[in-house]
Amino acid sequence: xxxxxxxxxxxxxxxxxxxxxxxxxxxxxxxxxxxxxxxxxxxxxxxxxxxxxxxxxxxxxxxxxxxxxxxxxxxxxxxxxxxxxxxxxxxxxxxxxxxxxxxxxxxxxxxxxxxxxxxxxxxxxxxxxxxxxxxxxxxxxxxxxxxxxxxxxxxxxxxxxxxxxxxxxxxxxxxxxxxxxxxxxxxxxxxxxxxxxxxxxxxxxxxxxxxxxxxxxxxxxxxxxxxxxxxxxxxxxxxxxxxxxxxxxxxxxxxxxxxxxxxxxxxxxxxxxxxxxxxxxxxxxxxxxxxxxxxxxxxxxxxxxxxxxxxxxxxxxxxxxxxxxxxxxxxxxxxxxxxxxxxxxxxxxxxxxxxxxxxxxxxxxxxxxxxxxxxxxxxxxxxxxxxxxxxxxxxxxxxxxxxxxxxxxxx
Length: 411
Prior knowledge:
By secondary structure, the chain is an alpha/beta fold. It folds into 2 domains: 6-62 and 309-405, Aspartate Aminotransferase, domain 1; 63-305, Type I PLP-dependent aspartate aminotransferase-like (Major domain) (Aspartate Aminotransferase, domain 2, 3-Layer(aba) Sandwich), CATH 3.40.640. The protein contains 14 helices and 17 strands. The chain is globular and about 60 Å long. The two termini are 32 Å apart.
């Protein structure tokens, strides 16, 4: 970087003084963003291979995203959103439902809210169709579904954070990609299975098609709902609009967020009508969810992502990124231990601590994130160019080749 980050350091200090210590603030304070890049207070440029952890699906300030914002701003955006239909909400809902097998939708403000809503819906459906004692879930180790009490109860992290207990009861953990471990947990009390197509915080581990197809059959045979948590893996990141399409299964309930709004906070959960019809007026709701501003952004962002040529390009970019990373793997020997993930949701395991790699990447003008215990997570904009992929791999290579600045990982 060419400019000293004195302003950034000042904001870092001020942030550390006033915010709860939940996120360690980096020495870089961001000022603005455009396309695939973010800029700090000093004007230094960083290739953004995080985009808020798969949030800014079209990159920063994309025309479709900006149109969704600007054309709604002078029309109002909190008009008793639950009780009244609005053009943006109806158009966004129809666009999503017309591209999957779900038939009903409820917009939320976040992914965790979408998960909580799906858990409530599953329990309500089971209460009516399977009996009052059928309220339990099968979830997976290395899962991540959110941080509200409902979502975190379905997340393995809860098992290691007793300070927040008691959690919601009735969650049983199976092994991801292990159908036998699911079978062992099935009882008459299980109402649903919730699963990520690709485990984000679980180290970018993708499910296999055989696992998902077997899981769907197991759920169907036992009258258990299958909830597909596509908050991180969905909305084009696999090269298909919905992640379950990439893996060849059809869920009963789908949760969405992150890339759904291209950077605007919004989520949703969707289901077949025979499931959602158990909800009665007042069973669920939200003050802000489904507001015209958020749903107008959803409509324009998803309209861009769903284009066949856009999704085809995502597949090409993902394959190209993996190809370049494999070449880097060969070039750097045992520095990289594995490359995993699907589409443009890529994980790189190395022999070094990811935190030290992230710090060095930042110094070299690139933003990425950590997933799981020691996986470098790359979730760039879905419209990233080949030249930008080349730049990302080059920067990662520069960091990995200077081992003197890195710390070896010990599990």
